[in-house]
Write a structure and sequence with these properties.
hydrolase, Metallo-B-lactamas, hydrolase activity, alpha/beta
Length: 239
């Protein structure tokens, strides 16, 4: 599995021959790439409907959309998406097969209004566990990464996601103000009992400016054995 961070909460994930793009938003200071520079993905995964997560979704409308039914409906009308998993999207707790990848939608504690003229609802905010095997069949040979989306710290990370979905790696927001900050994100990593951790959703706007080294130190302070990876934008990482 290959992970590439494009700044903020935008990730390219490759599982086998399948390319997935999560929360496309390239107007961030970490990347110099334009959306047109990204190879067209097979799937676009949207955690929620805030502008800093869907701003460039329309650039990839030829892909299959993975999102809640409410957000799928919005993206069909707004961006011209014609294909969604299941024909209508998915919802919390579900797992869908996306060619070589399996995507499980998890809960996130956040808001999810779309700031349009009619203030549309995008349903529930979400996170995703992306794996190369179905969750029930995961073993030491399989690989799974949990992208928490925008969220606060929640006990579901310990009791459900960590315990039952058992990801190997976690991508967590550390920006504070709108999501968890470094210390709560570090607790999340510890609860999830992962081997690898990656920060996201920081340094994009003044309210979420953070030193990611603080996150790394906070993870170590919890006693977690996770390796924290502070990635440079647009550089692939083999998980």
């Amino acid at each position: 599995m290959e992970l590439t961070w494009h700044g903020h909460s935008t990730w390219s994930v490759t599982v086998g021959e399948t390319d997935l793009l999560v929360d496309p938003f390239f107007d961030n200071p970490k990347t110099a790439l334009e959306p047109s520079a990204i190879d067209k993905p097979d799937y676009v995964l949207l955690t929620h409907g805030h502008a800093d997560h869907i701003a460039h979704a329309g650039e990839f409308a030829g892909a299959t959309l993975v999102a809640t039914p409410e957000l799928v409906s919005f993206c069909e009308e707004e961006f011209g998406f014609e294909d969604a998993v299941g024909g209508m999207g998915m919802n919390l707790g579900g797992t869908v097969e996306c060619d070589d990848a399996y995507v499980t939608m998890t809960r996130a504690d956040h808001t999810n209004g779309i700031m349009t003229e009619n203030d549309a609802s995008a349903g529930m905010p979400a996170g995703f566990v992306i794996s190369d095997a179905p969750p029930a069949e995961s073993d030491e040979e399989s690989t799974a990464v949990y992208n928490a989306g925008d969220t606060s710290l929640m006990s579901e990370m310990r009791d459900v996601i960590g315990d039952h979905l058992a990801p190997d790696a976690a991508i967590v927001p550390i920006g504070d103000h709108f999501t968890m900050g470094p210390k709560q994100a570090a607790i999340a990593v510890d609860w999830l009992d992962v081997d690898h951790a990656f920060p996201q959703h920081y340094d994009t706007f003044p309210p979420i400016e953070q030193d990611p080294e603080d996150f790394s130190s906070a993870v170590e302070a919890t006693g977690s054995d996770a390796d924290v990876h502070l990635l440079e934008a647009d550089e692939p990482f083999e998980l």
